[in-house]
Amino acid sequence: MAGTPQVGSSGARSLPLTYGSCLGGGSSINAMMGARPTFAGMSALEALGNPGWGWNDFLPYMQESETFTPPNPTQLADGANYIAAVHGFHGPVGVSFAQPLVAPALQDAAKSTVQIVFDESVTLTPDMGDGFSGGHVASFYHHIHFNETLQTDRRSSSAWSFLYPQSQQRTGLTVLTGHRVNSLVTSTRAGGNVTATGVLVEPTAGGQILAFNVSREVVVTGGTLYSPAILQRSGIGNASYLQTLGIKPVLDLPGVGANFQDQILLTNVSFPLAPSANFTNVTAGADVLLGIVVAHPTAGDALGQTGSAALDNSLRTISAEHPLSAGGVVNAQSLTTQARLIADAYKIDHPFFEIFFTPGSTALEVWAQTILPLSRGFIRINTTDPSVDPIADAQYLTLDVDIQVAVAAARRISRIAAMAPFSDLITATALANSGVPDVNATDEQVREWVLSTYTPGIHFVGSNAMMPKDLGGVVSPKLLVYGTTNIRIADASIVPMSVFPHTTLGLYGVAERAAEAILETAGSKLA
Ligand SMILES: Cc1cc2nc3c(=O)[nH]c(=O)nc-3n(C[C@H](O)[C@H](O)[C@H](O)COP(=O)(O)OP(=O)(O)OC[C@H]3O[C@@H](n4cnc5c(N)ncnc54)[C@H](O)[C@@H]3O)c2cc1C
Description:
Elements lengths: L1 E5 L6 E4 L22 H9 L7 H11 E4 L3 H6 L14 E4 L7 H14 L5 E2 L11 E4 L4 E4 L4 E4 L2 H5 L16 E10 L5 E10 L6 E4 L4 E3 L2 H11 L2 E2 L1 H6 L6 E2 L11 E3 L3 E3 L20 E4 L2 H18 L4 H6 L5 H17 L4 E7 L3 E8 L7 E3 L10 E3 L6 H18 L12 H5 L8 H11 L1 E2 L30 E3 L14 H23 L1
Parallel strand pairs: 3-4, 5-6, 12-23, 13-14
Antiparallel strand pairs: 1-2, 6-17, 7-8, 9-10, 10-11, 15-19, 15-22, 16-19, 17-18, 18-19, 20-21
Helix pairs in contact: 1-10, 2-14, 8-10, 8-11, 11-13
This protein binds flavin-adenine dinucleotide.
């Protein structure tokens, strides 16, 4: 999807917004990095008005979906580790370290260097999935299932986990590929609640529209970029805007498509390998895998006491003027409430940003990613034609607090590249030739580099946010669209703030919660 032009020091750039247009969606094409939200992040979600979504409530749902393969003795010796109590061992989604462990010598050097660069305030943890990842560095596990019979790793996408395996075959399920949902057919009952009675679907190659009747519920799962578009084409959204497109509004819900957000990535960072480091336990060998070591410093680790106090103050006194005028939030309170909760999350120990290390065969990459952006944009259809992508505008880095986080991350990348033992693995001129600002660069130079080189984090969330309706929320904590009796949403669009450092493992937890809510409703209707 072509994103709208975004800010950048060398002029507005149009950034492509990548997603998986296939069975399994993003999980079929993504980088498989296995991250989870944290206690601090889930506390923010709960405090936003979502009782029952705190860490302790949410962890069992993530465990339900997971089969974790613990590292074997060789992998343990090479530095992989885990905490059994926080994992699941019977779910459909495989999570494991790659076998064999990729580039253990690089992993070792990366972990030591991170600790040195953060003056030992970032410590080694066995497992980033225990809810307290702020202030830690660890080996990264991935969405991988190790197949004992084939003796090989296999991507554990949602399709390979929930659709293809023999154990998942069931009656009453039809998967229709090569088609897209146009819109929902609805009726409005006395009392004003909207009920979906049908779904209109059309072949992507063109042809006759199919109409399906709804006997119970519709669960919308088009993802953050497309679920709002399905609702909008169905007349659910900002009523006055829908009218300008000739769509008859059935439910005025201005939050549909608002609150769209994404993290940013700093990926323009590649350091050529020193000739002496050109051996397999430093390089990826045949197993190129993105992000084999991950570091999550807290705001205090990254900015120190004075810097983090200043950031805290910026968040607590933020002006909502820009996001409001850009259509990113439905009212100022929506933004200021989220800003306050982000500040609270940083105070607990929420990761401030993420740094991850990737080995290639000729270069080592050190990428950084922000986690909790506050800039807010929107997803908005501008035609009723479902084959035309909606306008997707994340308003990346339009709030200065988000730039400050990215600048702090960029500064640590250059310090890592300049610090042994990591620097011993790359050529002496690697940092100078990389384009990454030098360790002595001014804040202005680093900002310039960030704005001209950042790319989308591709962890889109928030465009049908689970939060109170008066803040622009679209779904309730049971994931039911406000004002409807049977339209539920179960994808990343419901996640109101980017508390998932990488989205997929958390989203399986969201899906499990949706399944439970659907069964509860079905049970109460059958009883
Ligand atoms: C290149 C890339 C790398 C990533 N790396 C990682 C990673 O390493 N770790 C991680 O955790 N996450 C990663 N992510 C993010 C993660 O994959 C996504 O956040 C996640 O897949 C979103 O899940 P979803 O169910 O919300 O939506 P999606 O996965 O986007 O699924 C939506 C599905 O709906 C379909 N659809 C859309 N509109 C319609 C319609 N009108 N009718 C019918 N079907 C429709 C789409 O084709 C798609 O199959 C990455 C994403 C990308 C794109």
